């Protein structure tokens, strides 16, 4: 029996690979001779870098970059492998010089995966210091710069979880794109400063940008400005008051005006332009990136369709399966791929939330929560591995009954 295990992480508890290992352990107790293929996956959000590195045997690059408030923070990104487990790579700083475009790199042909939140995430800013008028995406640009300098020509960037509302301006500055005010001076960091933008100069941009293709995982469809824009919808969680929301929205509108005046395509009304404080607009304007659903990018990159071919059953899961799971979450992405090949799919979750059965209506064979009894949250998280293993063992026993 061939079984493919393709789960997301159980947030605050287990990585996607650890989830897959626990499910494998439980299955092997009752089906010791089954052929198991483990494919840690994600939906483009938190944990995507680790899951894709684990799935491909890649490596993690750790480095120090500018955080949202201008302080140095530790961040990381992944370089995907080709099935051979890679060792971690550590660097002390992202203050790297430009690479020679003619030089060869051991990473040429590789794919880098970057989570914006790693460098520019809300978790880097204490609640009492949250101020999207000031926060910058510069650190995310430093991660991109480091990847480019390693010779990487394909970058996957996951949006979400950011502390910023600067439209990707900080990212652009880290890549040597000049944002200037009316006096020709470099624009300060933060969303408020965009109101003073007068000129954009891309002539000195990182020389390898044009050689790199960017795919951006984006699962929201908000435009840049207005009632559904970046400032109004996402600004308050980043510390914006109603007055700040108005200021930031006007600043982003002016930013888009200047981008258009400088001959760069105007994407302000494009679905997803308002993602991550307007980073959606920034990546389209400065990286010529395409916004795609995160789960689609991940599934394609790890080659899920090929790896599940010929499987008898696919097992997927995430920390919580509920009514939102069908809207682009990992179990739904895995289910779609399996359905195309007529392979039954089973879901395992830390818990089942409201309308969890919606995924059954989309064709999943069954869903199982792993919590055996009511317990404090800390106990539930601590026992996730054991509970996963036990649930998988019971699923394996049922599968064996079907073989008789």
UniProtKB/TrEMBL annotation:
Domain of life of the native organism: Bacteria
GO molecular function per UniProt: kinase activity
Keyword Kinase: yes
Signal peptide coordinates: none
Pfam families (UniProt xref): Gly_kinase
Keyword hit for Transferase: yes
Keyword annotations: Kinase, Transferase
Record-linked NCBIfam families: glycerate kinase
PANTHER family: GLYCERATE KINASE
Entry's family note: Belongs to the glycerate kinase type-1 family.
Protein name according to UniProt: Glycerate kinase
Species the sequence originates in: Shewanella oncorhynchi
Classification lineage: Bacteria, Pseudomonadati, Pseudomonadota, Gammaproteobacteria, Alteromonadales
């Amino acid at each position: 029996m061939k079984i493919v295990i393709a789960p997301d992480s159980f947030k605050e508890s287990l990585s996607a690979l650890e989830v897959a290992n626990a499910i494998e352990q439980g299955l092997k107790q009752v089906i010791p001779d089954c052929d198991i293929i483990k494919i840690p996956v994600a939906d483009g959000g938190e944990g995507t870098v680790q899951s894709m590195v684990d799935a491909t045997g890649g490596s993690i690059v750790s480095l120090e970059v500018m955080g949202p408030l201008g302080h140095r923070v530790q961040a990381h990104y992944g370089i995907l492998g080709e099935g051979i487990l890679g060792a971690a790579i550590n660097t002390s700083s992202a203050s790297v010089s430009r690479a020679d475009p003619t030089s060869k790199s051991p990473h040429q042909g590789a794919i880098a995966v970057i989570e914006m939140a790693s460098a520019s995430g809300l978790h880097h800013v204490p609640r009492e210091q949250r101020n999207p008028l000031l926060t910058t995406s510069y650190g995310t640009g430093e991660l991109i710069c480091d990847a480019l300098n390693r010779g990487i020509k394909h970058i996957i960037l996951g949006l979400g979880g950011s502390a910023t509302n600067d439209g990707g301006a900080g990212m652009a500055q880290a890549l040597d794109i000049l944002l200037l005010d009316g006096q020709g001076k470099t624009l300060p960091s933060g969303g408020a400063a965009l109101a003073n933008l007068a000129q954009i100069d891309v002539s000195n941009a990182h020389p390898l940008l044009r050689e790199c293709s960017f795919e951006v995982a984006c699962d929201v469809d908000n435009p840049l400005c207005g009632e559904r824009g970046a400032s109004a919808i996402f600004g308050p969680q980043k510390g914006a008051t109603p007055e700040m929301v108005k200021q930031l929205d006007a600043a982003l509108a002016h930013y888009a005006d200047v981008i258009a005046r400088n001959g760069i395509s105007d994407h302000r009304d494009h679905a997803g332009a308002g993602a991550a404080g307007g980073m959606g607009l920034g990546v389209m304007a400065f990286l010529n990136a395409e916004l795609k659903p995160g789960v689609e990018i991940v599934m394609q990159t790890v080659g899920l369709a090929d790896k599940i071919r010929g499987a008898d059953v696919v097992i997927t899961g995430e920390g919580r399966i509920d009514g939102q799971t069908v809207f682009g979450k990992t179990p739904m992405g895995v289910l779609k791929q399996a359905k195309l090949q007529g392979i039954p799919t089973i879901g395992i979750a830390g818990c089942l939330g409201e309308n969890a059965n919606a995924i059954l209506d989309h064709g999943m064979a069954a869903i199982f929560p792993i919590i055996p009894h009511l317990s404090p949250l800390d106990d539930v998280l601590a026992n996730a591995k054991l509970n996963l293993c036990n649930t998988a063992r019971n699923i394996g026993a049922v599968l064996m009954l079907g073989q008789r």
